[in-house]
Amino acid sequence: MSKPYTDQDLSDLFDQDLIWRRKELSDLKAAVKAADAAAKPVLLRAIVTMSYAHWEGYVRNCANRYFEYLTIRRRTYANLERQIYVNTFLARIDALHQSRANLEARCKLVNDILDGMTGTFKYVNPSLIDTKSNLNTDIIREICLICSVDSLHFETKRVFLDQFILKRRNAIAHGQNEFIQETGVDDLIAEILGLMQHFRSLLENKVYQKQYAA
Fold first, then answer.
1. 11 and 34 both lie in a single domain
2. Roughly how many angstroms between the first and final C-alpha of the chain, as a whole number?
3. In degrees rounded to 5, what are phi and psi of residue 187?
4. Same domain for 194 and 129
5. Range of the domain at 111
6. Which residues contact 197 (CB under 8 A, 6 or more apart)?
7. Model pLDDT for residues 1-60, shown as the tens digit of each residue
8. Whether 130 and 55 share a structural domain
9. Is residue 1 part of a domain?
10. Residue 56's closest CA among 128, 124, 129, 133?
């Protein structure tokens, strides 16, 4: 798989990942319309679970590709927006908190933070792009913070994301016979694709406008 060496490479990778996801949802929608009465409920539940899966997968892939693009730039932290430097220490802070580290370890972390601005950005901890298999509004807000993009649009979709998609997906995943209406399928897929496209656009705009730079 190619790497995002240029702005266009990154956009192309976003495209490639979106195209197959969009086609799969479109194929599922067509299957629902063509199915007999017995098969429709099964396919409708599948659409909810697959819609969520593509939402989670696409957000995670786009965020990881964005940071891969930044690591290829080989810029120092001083030449990048502050959040990228902050990200470098979030996992260590969490680990220290979990382990109740001693004073020496805490001092070392503080010194590393104070001395690290001259370093080069080479890596983002995968745990920062962890969707926790539960990409609700609160978690997408955290991922937006890590990427330093605005999460407001997702906040306006809280009911759709947390109730209509995630709550139903969880019910289906846990074996409940969740009823899904066929009349809402077109809107459901359009909404989920719109949210995926919006997240992609937020990252693309940062790249094309060089907003990641200090």
1. yes
2. 30
3. -65, -40
4. yes
5. 76-121
6. 18
7. 699 999 999 999 999 999 999 999 999 999 999 999 999 999 999 999 999 999 999 999
8. yes
9. no
10. 133
Angle between helices 40-73 and 7-34 (to 10 degrees): 180
Helix/strand/coil (H/E/C) assignment for every residue in 95-158: HHHHHCCCHHHHHHHHHHHHHHHHCECCCCCHHHHCCCCCCCHHHHHHHHHHHCCCCHHHHCCH
Report field, pTM of the whole predicted structure over 0.90:
yes
Q: Answer whether residue 101 shows pLDDT above 80.
A: no
Strand partners, 103: none
Lowest mean pLDDT segment, chosen from 9-23, 89-103, 175-189: 89-103
Q: Are residues 37 and 49 in the same domain?
A: yes
Q: What percent of the chain has pLDDT over 90?
A: 75
Are 166 and 136 in contact by the 8 Å Cβ rule? The answer is yes
d(CA 65, CA 72): 11
Task: Tell me whether residue 201 is in a domain.
Answer: yes
Number of structural domains in the chain: 2
Co-location of 26 and 81 in the same domain:
no
CA atoms of 116 and 199, how far apart (whole Å): 30
Residue 22 to residue 25: CA distance in whole angstroms: 5
**DSSP category for residue 212:** T
Whether residue 188 is found in the same domain as residue 88: no
